[in-house]
Predict the structure.
Amino acid sequence: MNTQSRREFLKTAGLLGAGIAGIKPKEAAASPVNIVSDDRMGVLVDSTVCIGCRQCEIACKEEHGLPVGSLDDYMDRTLLAEMRRPDTTALTVINEYPNPKNPDQHTDLKVQCMHCDHPACVSACIVGAFSKQENGAVIWDESRCIGCRYCMVACPFQVPAFEFDKALEPKIMKCDLCYDNRTSKGKLPACVEACPQNALIFGKRYELLQLAHQKIQDRPQSYFDHIYGEHEVGGTSWLYLSNQDFASLDFPDVGTEPMPGATEPLQHALFKFFIPPVALYGLLGGIMWLGKGNKAEEEE
Amino acid sequence: MMHEPLEPRPVKTKFFTPTVIFITILAINGIIWALLRFVLGIGAVTNLDNQHPWGIWIGIDVAAGVALAAGGFTTSALVHIFHREDFHVLVRPAIMTAMLGYTFVALGVLFDLGRYYNIWHVPIMGNSTSVLFEVGICVMTYVSTLYVEFFPVVTERFMGRVRMGGILSKLNRAVDKLLRWIDAFLVKTMFFFIILGVVLSCLHQSSLGTLMMIAGHKIHPLWQTPIAPLLFLLSAISVGFPMVIMESLIASKSFGLKPEMDVLAKLGRFVGPLLAIYLGFKIGDMAVRGTYVYLSDLSLPSIMWMVEVLFGVIIPMRMFFWDKVLQSRPLLLIASFLAIFGVFIFRFNVFIIAYKPPYSFGAYFPSIGEISITVGLISIEILLYRILAIIFPVVSQPVKRLAVNAKYKVQGVFR
């Protein structure tokens, strides 16, 4: 029954172990680019001055090669009342809400990817297709993506959109902060450049925060005292000012802990030098080996 | 021994029965929908949208599929690592089911991937912070390990019997030699693959529980727990033996064989305590986090949680502690079904019911296409089980003539 001696068992185990260590995907598995630079850029959205003209939507579509359609359609304000989300046809949209401070007016709010400081999509992506660039932009690399949509599961704001209608080469689409053609070259994002009201301000994130706090301090009657994005999920590059509680503007209560905060320590504990798997392997091997010895004695 | 000696041999039965024909129709329906999915895209066949990126192809085909294939590593650990030779007859069917199960998990993933043809990116571009990467790489490695663990059955079947016709007949001798070389190699090294299989299983069964943790507040608090990996692992371990029992009872009925009731009853004795440990952690977690407050609101998640725990854990646990159940074939089958249901619905709850996107424009309900492909995959899996059991010596049967050629007796891992 037992053709092997214990010595042989150990020898084979050692040899095979060395072999498998060689092919383990340890070196191949690298962490993606995920830079939280002190000088990272951001956009401050002051929704109290936004008039909902949707020039940002048009500029965004033109910049990203998406069909703009008839410009007259953008005048139709009834559309704004129904909540829309960014999708594969529009990477940013404006939604309209009642204004509690002035019933004659509305609160208009542009939504798009928040460009988190600790992005869940970057942490989650199985092939590292997402990255957080030095200027703060969270971008998606088409050449890596396998279309698993785990980024969409992970995103606290449910932003990444997937081209469900494409049988081949479906894309994950979201705001890229105009990284490729604009912000990586020191230019303004298309939406910021298009905004006629200065409701969107592009700048270094820490400066935007100072500015936002200053605005609240200067005109406390106009603002709800909260900068959405300052601490949400550990901070985001896009920051929002509003005249009312963000909960009534469909902004989710996501807490202040970074989304990858719960899973990454677990992952790292598991994979740090492969200690837990190797220890489990050793334990099971030990049990098997000892049992083998007992069995051999019984048989003798 | 008072029992007749048993030996795994190819099952002698005709392939088609009315049930098999019905399952074949389901399989063909699934294949048609699968073609549509690859021609028209995911959106045309599924009810998935930007708010609901994952549906039953991930929740059932992958998450539940992986859990229900746990019979392989639990049985091989019991027999080979803890040396419980008395359960030997169960190893081959368990390994084969796990092999089929994981193969279909991998296939199921391909349906769901938008760029399935880029699957090879995973091992070379893998992101070490991604839980999905860990699950993916472990599943890939474990599928290969399962093929290695099953290979002695192939060598046993064909060693000395390689008779390819026509032009290939010249290769017969070489193929036979190769099989013998592989067999001799596997006899020496199989223990390595057995332990590897158990380690990989523990890793990805638990990581599957970590998978949805990154979704944070989008997962209902009843299931969003830091010990999710532990609960997933414990539930997978507890469902392994019920799966083996269920398969054994159904296969023996389908093949017209006598079920190994004494072995199955003995195996069933492990299930009660395993379910109790899992239940202990599940309830303990609830008490510590105070999530029982959500049970009183009688929403869909809270009802599904109660169904999961009552019918899927508590009732089968009580049944497996009961001698009468262990001795009775129908009751043992029901208890096993309930335990399997419990783990199935646990995975379904975490991946489908618990997931609530922050912006919802309607609930997700699987489309006919999604259901057809899921049912089709399971049907093809059942048909393959039948085909493999007819071709290969997997299912143990009473030996009528004892003087079998010793050379072709049980090989390698199954020694």
About this structure: Residues 6-29+263-299 of chain A form one domain. The two ends of chain A are 11 Å apart (CA to CA). The first strand of chain A starts at residue 41 and ends at 46.
